[in-house]
Amino acid sequence: MPELPEVETVKNTLKNIVIGKKIIASNIYWDNIIAYPKPKEFKQKIKNQTINDVKRRGKWLMFELDDYFLLSHLRMEGKYFFKHEKDPLNKHEHVTFTFSDGTELRYHDTRKFGKMYLLDKENVNNVKPLSDLGLEPWDENLTPNYLKSKFKNKPVKTELLDQSIIVGIGNIYADEILFLSKINPEEIASNLSTVKLKRIIENTKKVLETAINYGGTTIKSYESSEGVHGRFQSKLLVHTKETCPKCGTKISKIVVGGRSTYFCPKCQK
């Protein structure tokens, strides 16, 4: 699933393509992708709207239009492709946006799990889905005290994946963050010391910033818009690895909160 670095990469790619484009029509070939409003109303409202910017909040893409924000979650395999309106429609292209210059932005999703919301601009942060989100990794309010107030009696790996606490951390990145922080993924989050919480915050920023610089991580089917592949996979230290890059110990693979988890039993006692 695309996480924060992958969504940031898609955002940056799309900004170079769609800003300034006027939507003159949209077509929806799989209604369930449109979470709000109903598909008919969605098509009516988005017509004649211009894309003025592309932003990101957590794992959500935010297309800033004249009057609305178009929120898009890629879920497992969502992608965007830029084509001409006369190009043949791929069977997995479920939502298309036709621009006034004859080009199109097409949402491609093999699994059909993606979701889109069209929300009023002034209210977008006060209603779901964005109202449920926690802090961005670079928010100045992300402090040890904040984490102490949020972390529960659960494994720290589970809490790092909770999007209502910190947004954008996925399974791969949680493993990398905990390895660099020298914290066992099964350690109870509410018991963590201030020192360990500081390490988590620092390494969250470090891992995600590095991943963004490398275009995210290409795992399984992930690919950003226009064929941009993530190169952070070559920088992974522990996730899917056989031995620890620091001490040479065999990497352990367990399941934490239903997620495959990799860690070094020596470095992360």
TrEMBL record:
- Give the enzyme's EC designation: 3.2.2.23, 4.2.99.18
Q: InterPro entries given for it?
A: DNA_glyclase_Znf_dom_DNA_BS, FPG_cat, FPG_Glyclase, FPG_N, H2TH_FPG, Ribosomal_uS13-like_H2TH, Znf_DNA_glyclase/AP_lyase, Znf_FPG/IleRS
Q: Does the keyword Protein biosynthesis apply?
A: no
Q: Which regions form coiled coils?
A: none
Taxonomically, the superkingdom here is Bacteria
* Keyword S-adenosyl-L-methionine attached: no
According to the record, cofactor stoichiometry and binding are noted as: Binds 1 zinc ion per subunit.
Q: Where is the active site?
A: 2-3, 59, 259
Q: Which NCBIfam families match?
A: fpg (TIGR00577), PRK01103.1 (NF002211)
Quaternary structure note? Monomer.
Record family assignment: Belongs to the FPG family.
Instruction: Tell me what this protein is called.
Output: Formamidopyrimidine-DNA glycosylase
Name the species this protein comes from.
Candidatus Coprosoma intestinipullorum
Task: Provide the taxonomic classification.
Answer: Bacteria, Bacillati, Bacillota, Bacillota incertae sedis, Candidatus Coprosoma
Please state the gene responsible for encoding this protein.
Answer: mutM
